[in-house]
Write a structure and sequence with these properties.
Two copies of one chain form a homodimer.
Chain A (H helix, E strand, L loop, with lengths): L3 H19 L8 H11 L6 H13 L7 H22 L9 E2 L2 E2 L1 H4 L2 H21 L6 H15 L4 H11 L6 H11 L1 H14 L5 H28 L2 H4 L5 H4 L5 H5 L1 H19 L7 H12 L3
Antiparallel strand pairs in A: 1-2
Chain lengths: 300, 300
């Protein structure tokens, strides 16, 4: 088995290449919109959600051969949703940020109207990808995948988490309230990544899918806790986005709510909880375990 | 058979009631977002796309009983996409409009960030509706419906039409260029309405679906031509949105490109072309014929 770093590099490279193919060419009209969509998605990011798709795919159906082209498509759909949410979040009426992945944000590089349409179009593209390719032996499972992604993206998932985030600016949140926000804002899409990867690989057992769901919930929260720690500790250059912004905007973070030391403990506890859930699965869960560790130990 | 007016009122009422049920309750968190989603969708609009869904549904499978609850869901999905596009289009970075269906636009009544999230969440909800309900005997057909709606909404459909629209402000467009813009901007969703309605009703014959597609293309263009005529002729109070805005913003319209008299002729020619396509269909196309007439003769 490849080292984790080699596996991660391999998945990142193949997903980048799949995104290159699945995004509309910048030579097709409307060209400026298509160029901006590619700018928003390509050449950046840790691709955490695709990594979760592939890791869950490897754990999904013990013994069965893995169809990586299916995982590519699910990973692309998740990255389209993730990228759209970043483009819209960075807009002046939301976080008003000018830097993302070390580059000017879309509304700065292009304009606000284009940024709005880029986000809208990337969301449509995500669902198109899930419907236009064969991702499961049974079309009913594939409809379930569309349903999972739509629920994770919408008002009861990611977009709803953003709304809770907006309402929370300048308010003291309790830890459960902060958790509720992140379970939606970043957690929903991370859970969807694991759920889609497992289903691409043919996982059907309800109990197994529930253990995976619990793993994903813990990793999603850990991811956010670590994001808050890095936002407070890492310099902007390392982060690729404006550091210390949440605190400056009066947004509640794990660090502001429980303090830096406790936030670090929590990240490790969530990692341990995630790994415990993997112990109940029959398949090969080593990549999922390594990913949980990576999410907590990462430095960017 | 009911009169067209009675049929139209009946469809509008049942779709309003279906939307009431399918939109998240304003009592469920995040409450402000859900209230704003309901504000954006409920209690207004001609419901042209739902009318096309139902009319196409009635023409779809001659002799077969029509499952109106399927048509309800497809109609709701289309209205969610349509309403999201209006909310985003009205935002300051796009058309910057304050009035829609006689009410303050969402970003005026709520705020810009909420308007952004309302649009995003309504798009997700549209795909959720198509995946979460049984709309066709065969799940493969239902995936095709997801694909049709995603394509119609995205960068090669509605959102792409918006991008072409943005690029065209202040530029003299030729008639083919103007048509290309509208085939995407409003036409794509109107074609999707007809395509989804027919598929809900079990239509499978390729040639028939192509005739329906041609009908929908003509009706979509006629709809836009008439919109441009009304924008130049009708007062704001009748229109429910700011009249004369396109001309004031230097946007090319059918009236500005071909003149008022020729635009009126074109609307009638497109109606005749649409009705000719219906002549090649075996099912009951009377509602589709009446709708084509309604689109051209409407006064609001």
């Amino acid at each position: 088995m490849d080292s984790f770093a080699a596996w991660m590099g391999g998945v990142q490279a193949r997903v980048e290449s799949a995104l290159e193919r699945q995004l509309p060419s910048a030579n097709i009209a409307p060209m400026r919109l298509h160029a901006a969509m590619r700018y928003a998605v390509l050449g950046g990011g840790k691709r955490v959600r695709p990594l979760l798709v592939f890791a869950a795919g490897e754990s999904g159906a013990p013994g069965a051969p893995i169809d990586a082209t299916r995982l590519d498509i699910a990973a692309c759909a998740l990255e389209c949703i993730h990228a759209y949410s970043l483009v819209h979040d960075d807009m002046p009426c939301m976080d008003d940020d000018v830097l993302r992945r070390g580059k000017p944000t879309v509304h700065v590089e292009y304009d606000e109207a284009t940024a709005l349409l880029v986000g809208d179009s990337l969301q449509s593209l995500a669902f198109r990808l899930l419907a236009d390719h064969r991702l499961a032996a049974d079309a009913t499972i594939q409809l379930e995948m569309v349903n999972i992604l739509a629920h994770a993206s919408g008002s009861r998932g990611m977009a709803g988490g953003q709304a809770i985030d907006l309402d929370s600016v300048g308010k003291p949140l309790s830890l459960p309230e902060l958790e509720m926000m992140h379970v939606h804002k970043t957690g929903a899409l991370i859970r969807a990544a694991v759920a889609l990867g497992a289903r691409c690989a043919g996982a059907r057992d309800k109990e197994q899918l529930q253990h995976l769901e619990h793993y994903a919930k813990c990793v999603g929260l850990a991811f956010q806790v670590v994001d808050d720690i890095l936002d407070c500790e890492a310099p902007t250059a390392t982060l690729g986005k404006t550091a210390g912004k949440d605190a400056a905007q009066g947004k509640p973070t794990y660090v502001s709510v429980v303090g830096l030391a406790r936030a670090k403990e929590m990240a490790h506890e969530l990692q341990a909880d995630a790994v415990r859930a993997l112990g109940k699965l029959p398949g090969n869960t080593s990549r999922l375990r390594e990913l949980a560790e990576f999410v907590v130990l990462r430095r960017f």
